[in-house]
């Protein structure tokens, strides 16, 4: 299979901060790769380098075989970018925004007009074509933003946190638009803080933290790698949570975490032996326990276990599931 995007040992330094510390990525043409990671992981920096907006300090990156530094002009002709923050012009209508992008990317007038009409239709924005974007809802603006990045029919599309802050309905609409685009063979690099989004759209996932790749695979593989199951232990008294944690640690069990809001301790367990040890530790602690159950880890728990960070906006993510 052709490789659409490749980075090898990508390094980016901002003063003392090493934003990227040797990032290797490979995205086969026509597939969707999700770059997943908490705030500050380096996702946007990767996208900016691949979009020729920032130069790497080390390593190299290519888009459809073209080097992002030496052949930046060629790369720019192949890509579309929807950034984390909307880049639409507030003072001209939705239609004019798309027309302008078309003209800026050298489409003839007639083609630029047709493309603006076509995309508004495709994104269900025809009725709002003549309105200024400031009258649009958040979801409509993101759709306009995405439409703008598709004017030039890019072979490679970067979506940098395209749905952060969107309500679940707008998020689903945007996902549908991305899927339609992928069906035409476009390669997509999607950054997100939502495991759900990665699962909904991506063929494969790369988890980044602190400028490094820490895991790569399909979402199923990531779940499997985190291993087994998660034990949820709910003490009768919320005040006992910390003691439950200590009892488990005292029995040599590592990796438990306390979720005060949910009123439980989560403990990843690799197998039956650990489960038995955990139950034994709780019994000898004599702490009153209201419930113990085993769960297949949620995607958020996988994320937590890989990065040690709560996925930002996991509240929103939970809404999406509901
Ligand atoms: N222009 C910049 N100047 C200084 N530091 C930056 C700049 N851009 C990003 N950084 C830093 O680099 C790290 C990675 O940032 P970023 O790529 O934006 O992460 P993410 O998109 O995953 O949240 C962060 O620590 C951030 O503060
Ligand atoms: Mg970012």
UniProtKB/TrEMBL annotation:
<dbReference type="InterPro" id="IPR003593">
    <property type="entry name" value="AAA+_ATPase"/>
</dbReference>
<protein>
    <submittedName>
        <fullName>Daunorubicin/doxorubicin resistance ATP-binding protein DrrA</fullName>
        <ecNumber>3.6.3.-</ecNumber>
    </submittedName>
</protein>
<comment type="similarity">
    <text>Belongs to the ABC transporter superfamily. Drug exporter-1 (DrugE1) (TC 3.A.1.105) family.</text>
</comment>
<dbReference type="InterPro" id="IPR017871">
    <property type="entry name" value="ABC_transporter-like_CS"/>
</dbReference>
<keyword id="KW-0547">Nucleotide-binding</keyword>
<dbReference type="InterPro" id="IPR050763">
    <property type="entry name" value="ABC_transporter_ATP-binding"/>
</dbReference>
<keyword id="KW-0067">ATP-binding</keyword>
<keyword id="KW-0813">Transport</keyword>
<dbReference type="InterPro" id="IPR005894">
    <property type="entry name" value="DrrA"/>
</dbReference>
<dbReference type="GO" id="GO:0043215">
    <property type="term" value="P:daunorubicin transport"/>
</dbReference>
<keyword id="KW-0472">Membrane</keyword>
<feature type="domain" description="ABC transporter">
    <location>
        <begin position="5"/>
        <end position="235"/>
    </location>
</feature>
<dbReference type="GO" id="GO:0005886">
    <property type="term" value="C:plasma membrane"/>
</dbReference>
<dbReference type="InterPro" id="IPR027417">
    <property type="entry name" value="P-loop_NTPase"/>
</dbReference>
<dbReference type="GO" id="GO:1900753">
    <property type="term" value="P:doxorubicin transport"/>
</dbReference>
<keyword id="KW-1278">Translocase</keyword>
<dbReference type="Pfam" id="PF00005">
    <property type="entry name" value="ABC_tran"/>
</dbReference>
<keyword id="KW-0378">Hydrolase</keyword>
<dbReference type="GO" id="GO:0046677">
    <property type="term" value="P:response to antibiotic"/>
</dbReference>
<keyword id="KW-0046">Antibiotic resistance</keyword>
<dbReference type="InterPro" id="IPR003439">
    <property type="entry name" value="ABC_transporter-like_ATP-bd"/>
</dbReference>
<dbReference type="GO" id="GO:0016887">
    <property type="term" value="F:ATP hydrolysis activity"/>
</dbReference>
<dbReference type="GO" id="GO:0005524">
    <property type="term" value="F:ATP binding"/>
</dbReference>
<keyword id="KW-1003">Cell membrane</keyword>
């Amino acid at each position: 299979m052709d490789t659409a995007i490749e980075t090898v040992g990508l390094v980016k330094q901002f003063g003392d901060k090493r934003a990227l510390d040797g990032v290797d990525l490979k995205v086969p043409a026509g597939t969707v790769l999700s770059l997943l990671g908490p705030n500050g992981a380096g996702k946007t920096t990767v996208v900016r380098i691949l979009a020729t907006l920032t130069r790497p300090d080390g390593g190299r990156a290519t888009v459809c075989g073209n080097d992002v530094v030496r052949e930046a002009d060629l790369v720019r002709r192949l890509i579309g970018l929807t950034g984390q923050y909307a880049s639409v012009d507030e003072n001209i209508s939705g239609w004019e925004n798309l027309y302008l992008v078309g003209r800026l990317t050298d489409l003839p007038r007639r083609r630029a007009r047709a493309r603006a009409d076509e995309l508004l239709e495709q994104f269900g924005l025809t009725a709002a074509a003549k309105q200024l974007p400031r009258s649009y809802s958040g979801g409509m603006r993101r759709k306009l933003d995405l439409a703008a990045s598709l004017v030039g029919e890019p072979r490679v599309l970067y979506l940098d946190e395209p749905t952060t802050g969107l309500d679940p309905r707008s998020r689903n609409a945007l996902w549908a638009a991305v899927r339609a685009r992928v069906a035409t063979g476009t390669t997509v690099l999607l950054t997100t803080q939502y495991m759900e989004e990665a699962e909904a759209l991506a063929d494969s996932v790369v988890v980044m933290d602190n400028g490094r790749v820490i895991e790569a695979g399909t979402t199923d593989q990531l779940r499997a790698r985190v291993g087994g199951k998660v034990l949820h232990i709910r003490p009768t008294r919320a005040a006992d949570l910390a003691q439950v944690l200590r009892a488990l640690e005292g029995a040599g069990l590592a990796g438990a975490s306390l979720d005060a809001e949910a009123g439980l301790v989560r403990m990843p367990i690799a197998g039956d032996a650990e489960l038995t040890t955990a139950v034994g530790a709780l019994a000898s602690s004599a702490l009153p326990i209201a419930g113990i159950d085993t769960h297949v880890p949620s995607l958020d728990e996988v994320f937590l276990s890989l990065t040690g960070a709560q996925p930002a906006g996991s509240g929103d993510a939970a809404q999406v599931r509901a």
